[in-house]
């Protein structure tokens, strides 16, 4: 097993040259050693590309591990809470993995590339932990973040764009499926996955072919409103979809200092990912006990009155804020497409059941003055954005 690379300075992804040409605002941040754009010209315009056309996001910095060997399946089943035996080759699984106390270390996607060959993608770096967890298993774990260039191609016209690139059979690709194609002599993998809650795909290719893929993609999308996007627009879309993000909805359990600040998958509304029917997995005993006794916290989706975004707000059970707060907002945004003030948050049980009314304490600044507002909020049980095209197979032209 190779050591995980340590990057000195900031790396530029294989798509950087194309992104740099489009950049007009010079707003970038560091994402696991890579330069990643907050926005390239206007985050609002980029957001509407996701919802009305096609938005293209550079996924290359996302952490990627290749897991192979005779015990690859047994290893993954020990690692994550989901039963990976049900994920056949050519399919992708959303999964979480926990420490021995049943607290989430991270979430991510596991691609069953071919028989016995997997790729695990995650927000954080976990190479040392993955190697320690591999003791006793005949597996090979390779850190391949720098070896795979990746793009997220998301939005209602995404299939129409890709269908112009001679990708035979793509119309039959179902959500959470993957296919392999030839692109100029290199293997192009396309998965029907994404972080926007809309019709979308992710493209994976050798870095040497990254610029050629970008050029072919944007040529195909010229009449379909294709645009490159940054993290700000993607963040708006993922909140609308109700997706979780590390360091927002939960803190990785192996990074916390204080007790009681991490979360279990049951507290994050991910009980459907915990399969107690399969053999032992990390955190199983603690999660079984929590299942019997009940959880301390509950993830909630909130429809909030008004248009003042509830960033970092406390949540109360009553408008007078009597009795102290019952939780807090983790992610918030005004949704342009839903025309709603929405948020994700975490509250103490038994509060937060769908249909419950809670109150959110919002502070906002106007003309140098801070204002306080107690806004009524309703707990909802479905994503704020879930268009039918997201699951349509084959996707219709748009």
Helix/strand layout:
Blueprint: H1 16-22, E1 27-31, E2 34-39, H2 43-52, E3 54-58, E4 63-68, H3 72-79, E5 92-98, E6 104-114, E7 117-122, H4 127-133, E8 140-143, E9 149-154, H5 158-162, E10 178-183, E11 186-191, E12 200-205, H6 210-220, E13 226-228, H7 231-241, H8 284-293, E14 297-304, E15 314-316, E16 327-335, E17 340-348, E18 357-366, E19 369-380
Parallel strand pairs: 3-13
Antiparallel strand pairs: 1-2, 3-9, 4-7, 4-8, 5-6, 6-7, 9-12, 10-11, 11-12, 14-17, 14-19, 15-16, 15-18, 16-17, 18-19
Helix pairs in contact: 2-7
Describe the protein:
By secondary structure, the protein is of the alpha+beta class. The chain has 2 domains: about 1-295, Gyrase A, domain 2 (2-Layer Sandwich), CATH 3.30.1360; about 295-380, Aminomethyltransferase beta-barrel domains (Elongation Factor Tu (Ef-tu), domain 3), CATH 2.40.30. About 15% of the residues lie in helices and about 30% in strands. The chain contains 8 helices and 19 strands. It has helices at about 15-20, 45-50, 70-80, 125-135, 160, 210-220, 230-240, 285-295; strands at about 25-30, 35-40, 55-60, 65-70, 90-100, 105-115, 115-120, 140-145, 150-155, 180-185, 185-190, 200-205, 225-230, 295-305, 315, 325-335, 340-350, 355-365, 370-380. The chain has a 6-stranded mixed sheet with strand order 10-11-12-9-3-13. Strands 14-17-16-15-18-19 form a 6-stranded antiparallel barrel. It has a 5-stranded antiparallel sheet with strand order 5-6-7-4-8, with helices on one face. A hairpin with a 2-residue loop joins strand 1 (about 25-30) and strand 2 (about 35-40). Helix 2 (about 45-50) crosses helix 7 (about 230-240). The model has no long low-confidence stretch (mean pLDDT about 95).
């Amino acid at each position: 097993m190779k050591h995980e690379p340590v990057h000195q300075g900031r790396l530029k992804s294989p798509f950087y040259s194309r992104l740099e040409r489009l950049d007009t605002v010079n707003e970038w941040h560091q994402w696991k050693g890579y330069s990643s754009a907050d926005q390239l010209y206007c985050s609002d315009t980029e957001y509407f590309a996701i919802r009305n056309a096609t938005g293209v996001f550079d996924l290359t910095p996302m952490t990627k591990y290749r897991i192979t060997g005779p015990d690859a399946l047994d290893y993954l089943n020990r690692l994550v809470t989901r039963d990976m035996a049900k994920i056949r080759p050519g399919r992708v699984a959303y999964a979480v993995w926990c420490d021995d106390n049943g607290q989430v270390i991270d979430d991510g996607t596991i691609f069953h590339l071919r028989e016995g060959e997997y790729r695990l993608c995650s927000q954080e770096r976990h190479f040392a932990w993955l190697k320690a967890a591999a003791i006793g298993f005949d597996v090979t774990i390779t850190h391949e973040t720098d070896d795979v260039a990746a793009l997220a191609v998301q939005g209602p016209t995404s299939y129409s764009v890709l269908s112009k690139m001679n990708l035979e059979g793509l119309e039959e690709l179902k959500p959470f499926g993957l296919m392999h194609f030839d692109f100029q002599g290199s293997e192009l993998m396309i998965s029907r996955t994404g972080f926007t809650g809309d019709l979308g795909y992710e493209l994976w290719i050798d870095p040497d072919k990254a610029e050629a893929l970008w050029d072919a993609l944007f040529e195909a999308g010229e009449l379909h409103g294709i645009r490159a996007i940054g993290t700000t627009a993607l963040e708006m879309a993922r909140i609308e979809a109700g997706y979780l993000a590390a360091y927002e909805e939960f803190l990785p359990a192996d990074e916390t200092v204080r007790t009681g600040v991490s979360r279990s998958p049951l507290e994050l509304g991910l009980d459907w990912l915990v399969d107690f029917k399969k053999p032992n997995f990390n955190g199983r005993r603690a999660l079984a006990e929590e299942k019997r006794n009940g959880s301390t916290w509950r993830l909630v989706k909130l429809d909030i009155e008004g248009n003042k975004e509830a960033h970092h707000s406390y949540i109360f059970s009553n408008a007078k804020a009597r009795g102290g707060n019952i939780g807090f907002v983790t992610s918030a945004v005004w949704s342009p497409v839903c025309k709603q003030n929405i948020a994700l948050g975490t509250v103490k049980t038994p509060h937060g059941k769908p249909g419950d009314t809670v109150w959110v304490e919002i502070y906002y600044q106007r003309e140098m003055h801070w204002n306080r507002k107690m806004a009524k909020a309703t707990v909802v049980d479905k994503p704020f954005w879930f268009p039918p095209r997201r699951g349509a197979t084959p996707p219709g032209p748009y």
